[in-house]
Automatic annotation (TrEMBL):
One of its GO terms (biological process) is riboflavin biosynthetic process. InterPro entries: DHFR-like_dom_sf, RibDG_C, Riboflavin_Biosynth_HTPR. It comes from Mucilaginibacter agri. Residues 2-181 form the Bacterial bifunctional deaminase-reductase C-terminal domain. This is Dihydrofolate reductase. Gene3D superfamilies: Dihydrofolate Reductase, subunit A. One of its GO terms (molecular function) is 5-amino-6-(5-phosphoribosylamino)uracil reductase activity.
Length: 188
């Protein structure tokens, strides 16, 4: 069975964005990009919520073509353009996307079916509402939480709708430059 991996930046107090979705507080640097690049190479499928897909689609398909494209832009754009993409969205029901499949109904069953198919890992960047839904259905296998050195106090919480406990075991912790700590947990 394929693993569903959640990649998420959080504040120390568990927020994934400011109240209006702003992520101007996220620490990014070359070391983090290298670390993420190595990790994404194990995934051949990406799962997104509508909002995160829109952000990704607006930038990554042509990021490598820009005159001053960074190494990270070239690497991630290459990966993004080759992976199979799924977008979970009720509002996009019936639309056809040139590079992604929309999942609008029976989301838990459809994601579980994806996990049963042969292939590499399924990776999910961001999409906190979708992450909460998948946590409630016990579908996330690993959590890669990039805890940024900031307390936001309010915003979009990663865990505020979780009704039942989810037991995890710490696989590894990595201190990255800039004060970010990557906590890698697996479901027990």
């Amino acid at each position: 069975m394929r693993k569903l991996i959640l990649f998420m930046h959080t504040s120390i107090d568990g927020f994934t964005a400011r109240p209006k979705g702003e992520m101007d507080w996220v620490t990014v640097n070359e070391e983090m990009f290298e670390y993420a690049y190595e990790r994404t190479q194990k995934a051949d499928t990406a799962l997104y919520g509508r909002g995160t897909y829109g952000i990704m689609q607006a930038y990554w398909p042509t990021a490598a073509d820009k005159p001053n494209a960074s190494k990270h832009d070239v690497q991630h754009a290459t990966w993004y353009n080759k992976v199979e993409k799924y977008v979970v969205s009720a509002t996009m029901r019936g639309q056809t996307l040139p590079n992604a499949t929309i999942i609008s109904d029976d989301v838990a069953d459809r994601v579980n079916q994806l996990k049963q198919q042969p292939g590499g890992e399924i990776i999910m960047f961001g999409s906190p509402n979708l992450a909460q839904y998948l946590m409630q259905h016990n579908l996330i296998d690993e959590y890669w939480l990039f805890v940024n050195p900031i307390i936001l106090g309010k915003g979009i919480s990663l865990f505020n709708h979780i009704q039942e406990q989810i037991k995890l075991k710490l696989v590894e912790q990595i201190a990255l430059p800039g004060g970010v700590v990557c906590l890698h947990y697996a479901k027990e």
